[in-house]
Amino acid sequence: MLATLVKEPFDRRGWIYEEKYDGVRILAYKEGAQVTLMSRNAIDRTERYATIAEAVGKLKPVTLLLDGEVVAFDKRKVSRFQLLQQGRAAVKYAVFDCPYFDGQDMRAKPLSQRREALEKLFRGPHPGTLLLSDELAGDGLQAFAIVKKRKLEGLVAKNMQSKYVQGRSREWLKVKVNHESEFVIGGYTPPGGSRKYLGALLLGTYAGKQLRYAGKVGTGFDTETLRRLSNTLKKLAQAKSPFSDEVRERNVTFVRPKLVAQVAFTEWTSDGRLRHPAFLGLRDDKAPQEVGREEA
């Protein structure tokens, strides 16, 4: 179940306002002693997040399906995708829904009952690797003020009567403070000055089958990241531009659009380019063809 982006915070009776985590969405399946962690594009991540799988395995219910976000927190307890991607902090699993609980299919039940099941689960002893998603405040506007004060990415507002459905829903709405999104890498420029390996990444988003150019990102890299990216991108090089519109950059090496980058930015310009973008890391939990421009 995916949240729909909206422009402004709001307050509605019967809604819950949770922290929006900056991590990797994971479904955790527990069937007896067997635990499987799956990404949103159905890739098995059990081995990658073995400590989380072990923690889920210790939970009391025999059968369980949890929905949440694998995250890494900075010193201010703010989740950062970059920390998770670089492996620079301990991973946690922030759980915010429970589609299946101890032999019972909960998807048709209201979120209030699913949340109650989670609260029951987390009231007892549970591994510290797992945490219940943070409910910010009962009032949506107050919750947004907390988000801004703590410098979180945003909040997710959820109708407590909502059923759990596959796909994007207006029963879950998200409001962002910081702009972060996925972009497809379609090329790169050569390094300049003392920089090594590559200069900037050319980014785009899909509109139907067309990859629309969104600008370039040249900050947020360390030398090791540049080296690894360069080695990977060289293998994807092609003569033809993958973008449907003209790219006015010199000495560009175009690549097959196979990689997805997570990028922070301040805003979109009027001509559809990113302002002040910064590279945060690569994502492998979303197919390039799924990356479109997300608008409120």
List the helices and strands and how they pair.
Elements: E1 2-5, E2 15-19, E3 24-31, E4 34-39, H1 50-57, E5 63-72, H2 81-86, E6 91-101, E7 104-105, H3 111-123, E8 130-132, E9 135-137, H4 140-150, E10 154-159, E11 168-176, E12 179-188, E13 201-207, E14 210-217, H5 223-234, E15 237-238, E16 253-255, E17 260-265, E18 267-268, E19 274-275, E20 278-283
Parallel strand pairs: 1-11, 6-8
Antiparallel strand pairs: 2-9, 2-10, 3-4, 3-5, 5-6, 6-7, 10-11, 12-13, 12-16, 12-17, 13-14, 15-16, 17-20, 18-19
Protein model, in words:
It is a single chain. By secondary structure, this protein is of the alpha+beta class. It is built from five helices and 20 strands. The protein has helices spanning 50-57, 81-86, 111-123, 140-150, 223-234, and strands at 2-5, 15-19, 24-31, 34-39, 63-72, 91-101, 104-105, 130-132, 135-137, 154-159, 168-176, 179-188, 201-207, 210-217, 237-238, 253-255, 260-265, 267-268, 274-275, 278-283. The strands form four sheets. Strands 12, 13, 14, 15, 16, 17 and 20 form a seven-stranded antiparallel β-sheet that branches. Strands 3, 4, 5, 6, 7 and 8 form a six-stranded mixed β-sheet that branches. The model has no long low-confidence stretch (mean pLDDT 94).
